[in-house]
Automatic annotation (TrEMBL):
Residues 7-200 form the Poly(A) polymerase nucleotidyltransferase domain. It comes from Solanum pinnatisectum. This is polynucleotide adenylyltransferase. Gene3D superfamilies: 1.10.1410.10, Beta Polymerase, domain 2 (3.30.460.10), Poly(A) polymerase predicted RNA binding domain (3.30.70.590). Residues 205-349 form the Poly(A) polymerase central domain. Residues 481-536 are annotated as: Disordered. PANTHER family: POLY A POLYMERASE, POLYNUCLEOTIDE ADENYLYLTRANSFERASE. GO terms for cellular component: nucleus. It catalyses: RNA(n) + ATP = RNA(n)-3'-adenine ribonucleotide + diphosphate. It is an enzyme of class 2 (transferase). GO terms for molecular function: ATP binding; metal ion binding; poly(A) RNA polymerase activity; RNA binding. The keyword Nucleotide-binding applies. Its cofactor is Mn(2+); Mg(2+). GO terms for biological process: mRNA processing; RNA 3'-end processing.
Length: 702
């Protein structure tokens, strides 16, 4: 068992797996194997051969560059370049057919122009290279291609060395000296991946848990950095933090604790694997004290390698809401699995996206060739998250979007793709605030942004329209066949019934069903009697009677776009209402100062209208000092079970005054233990200033 401290805090539990944990872990690993997550031995060997061949190619390329630039024979002979891997392949969690993220590190005189020039020409002439697609103007310039059928994403970094040694260590800070921003970003992938592997206590358990979470995220539709969810590195960092908090846990327990911790996490407090390194090279790093943009991040997941950056800056209010609801669902199912009331299969059920909402935005794009579609598709996908932000801002956060992370194609229409967004009204909002949603100007503004593409051609086309669930095209459904009877709807705001349901009167059930439909869609179109495909019990943590919902203004069935600001509106995080849930919630401690313009919903759900935050920043005589001290085990013990508390010397009565796991600054324990059995009461005031660094929770006297 591991006794070494990992991360910025003491672990929640150092206990190892029980006999039941071993059984559940065996079941989980069998499920992952049956899901086809592991590549064959033959494919693994093929990947190694491709990487070896690619390394030889770049070594030849750099010698050619030296000759072309007139360097002497000795320097040509010593000239070298080296291939590194990062991402899922380096982490050891890639599956069959996955691409390999690679980095070519070359000497100072082999410029990026040579990489996209001479090396591109060399690859273009090789018969084993297919689908070669350079993207030199990307934020991180990349060359994409297939090498003997293996997909490769190749980055380039020319460092300030005349000769690249074979034993080059890119994790050293000195590698970043005298290089441009593109090289820093290109090196970042390898440096972060290596640090993650160094910061987890058990690499094998980390890999199994991460494979599990990647599969879960893909099936639940929340695996996509470009559309505002989380990508591979984000999930890796989140899982790594859980591994630090439970260093000796089996993968099955890590998965369960993943959902427990992050369903209670109080964003925008950051997830950190280690203290933020300010470095000595003067490079910009994530620091909400100095950088205004960093204060606007909703779900900061900070990379551990210098310069530390927020890897999840794409997350919006809407996508954070979706992920938090998924974490809640995952936690419920894992609790049921531990009680032998559910199986792992139920955790990984695909989210029924086209049954979950009544209203969608449909985005169609088209071109006239494969090459044009590849470029146009990549550009449009990178812009879709901006449409989400624009809609959030132009409707003051009332209309929320759920973008589907993938595209759909009608086989009868070549060079044509469609994207979809589920739409619903924000929970707990006063109905008068959103009686109509006229987003035509918003969509038009979005289309103008898309058409501003530098390489736009007249054949590149985009169209955005509103479509109701009943009018969805058949090609979005499995096999191109629309279900005869829609399956039971899984509301993003409703709980997934795992036990016995409460007995309800027909009138109450009808009222709840109506409210569920309204929360689920955000719309109550006049003249429409369409109802949800099935009733789902509302999750207690999200209970909110929103009253009558409002209609949308849609002219000629078009929804077209306008943005006042791209600043997203923070999403409220659900709060448990039971004493036991509070004992759980009080665990994950946070330190952030929030100035909140608040409107409480009918059931205590808080509508956060405006949030100004200074993450973990203390003010000392006008100077800011970023706090990175680790919280004590007692400060985070609330997230553990009573058994786990005993393992680390905690007590079930030793709880904290705030809700969330502190990652930047330790929180002082509350003087009273009575809050463990008291429900969190939302203050009924229009404007409240929360200081989670010093706030002490109180309870109402009866």
């Amino acid at each position: 068992m591991s006794n070494t401290a990992y991360g910025i805090s003491e672990p929640i539990s150092t206990g190892g797996p029980s006999e039941l944990d071993v059984v559940r872990n065996r079941e989980l690993e069998k499920f992952l194997a049956d899901a086809g997550l592991y590549e064959s031995h033959e494919e693994a060997i093929k990947r190694e051969e491709v990487l070896g061949r690619l390394d030889q190619i770049v070594k030849t390329w750099v010698k050619n560059v030296c000759r072309a630039k007139g360097f002497n024979d000795d320097l040509v002979h010593e000239a070298n370049a080296k291939i590194f891997t990062f991402g899922s392949y380096r982490l050891g969690v890639h599956g069959p057919g996955a691409d390999i993220d690679t980095l070519c590190v070359g000497p100072r005189h082999a410029m990026r122009e040579d990489f996209f020039g001479e090396l591109h020409r060399m690859l273009e002439e090789m018969p084993e290279i297919q689908e070669l697609h350079p993207v030199p103007d990307a934020h991180v310039p990349v060359m994409k291609f297939k090498f003997n059928g293996v997909s490769i994403d190749l980055l380039y970094a020319n460092v300030s060395l005349w000769v690249i040694p074979e034993d080059l260590d890119v994790s050293q800070e000195s590698i970043l000296q005298n290089v441009d921003d593109q090289t820093v970003r290109s090196l970042n992938g390898c440096r972060v991946t290596d640090q993650v592997l160094l910061l987890v206590p058990n690499i094998q358990s980390f890999r199994t848990a991460l494979r599990c979470m990647r599969l879960w995220a893909k099936r639940r539709g929340v695996y996509s950095n470009v559309t505002g969810f989380l990508g591979g590195i984000n999930w890796a960092l989140l899982v790594a933090r859980i591994c630090q908090l439970y260093p000796n846990a089996a993968p099955s327990m890590l998965v369960s604790r993943f959902f427990r911790v992050y369903s209670l996490w109080r964003w925008p407090n950051p997830v950190l694997l280690c203290p933020i390194n300010e470095g000595s090279l003067g490079l910009a790093y994530w620091d909400p004290r100095r950088n205004f943009k960093d204060r606007q991040h909703l779900m900061p997941i900070i990379t551990p390698a210098y310069p530390c950056m927020n890897s999840s800056y794409n997350v919006s209010t809407s996508t954070l809401r979706v992920m938090m609801e998924e974490f809640l669902r995952g936690n419920e199912i894992c609790e049921a699995i531990e009680a032998n009331k559910a199986s792992w299969g139920s955790l990984f059920e695909p989210f029924p996206f086209f049954e979950a909402y009544k209203n969608y935005l449909r985005i169609d794009i088209a071109t006239e060739s494969d090459d044009d579609m590849r470029q146009w598709k990549g550009w449009v996908e990178s812009r879709i998250r901006l449409l989400t932000l624009k809609i959030e801002r132009d409707t003051v956060g009332v209309l929320q979007c759920h973008p589907h992370p993938g595209e759909f194609s009608d086989k009868s229409k070549p060079f044509h793709h469609s994207y979809f967004m589920g739409l619903r009204r924000k929970q707990g909002v006063n109905p008068q605030q959103g009686e109509q949603f006229d987003i035509r100007s918003t969509v038009e503004d979005f289309k103008r942004d898309v058409y501003a593409y530098s390489f736009w051609k007249s054949s590149m086309w985009i169209h955005v329209c509103h479509v109701r669930r009943k009018d969805l095209p058949d090609f979005v459904f499995s096999g191109g066949v629309r279900p005869v009877q829609p399956a039971k709807s899984e509301s993003r705001s409703g709980s997934r019934s795992l036990g016995s349901a409460k007995t309800t009167s027909p009138d109450a059930a009808s009222s709840r069903k109506r409210k569920h439909d309204e929360v689920n869609t955000g719309f109550s179109p006049k003249g429409s009697d369409a109802s949800s495909p099935g009733e789902t019990r509302e999750l207690k943590r999200f209970e909110a009677d929103i009253g009558d919902t409002s209609s949308t203004t849609l002219v000629d069935n078009q929804v077209e776009v306008s943005i006042k600001s791209t600043l997203p509106v923070p999403v409220p995080v659900p709060t448990p209402a039971s004493g036991a849930a509070v004992a759980e919630t009080i665990t994950v401690m946070q330190s952030a100062e929030l100035t909140v313009g608040q409107q409480s919903g009918p059931h205590g759900v808080v509508d956060l209208g405006y949030v100004e935050l200074t993450n973990g920043v203390k003010h000392f005589d006008g100077a800011n000092e970023l706090q990175t001290e680790c919280p004590t085990p007692e400060q985070i013990v609330g997230a553990a079970t009573s058994e786990e508390k005993d393992r680390i010397g905690g007590s079930s009565n030793n709880v904290l005054q705030s809700e969330g796991l502190e990652e930047l600054e330790p929180i002082e324990p509350a003087p009273s233990s009575s809050i463990a059995s008291a429900a969190f009461v939302v203050p009924q005031k229009p404007l409240i200033r929360f200081n989670f660094t010093s706030l002490r929770k109180t309870t109402e006297s009866t």
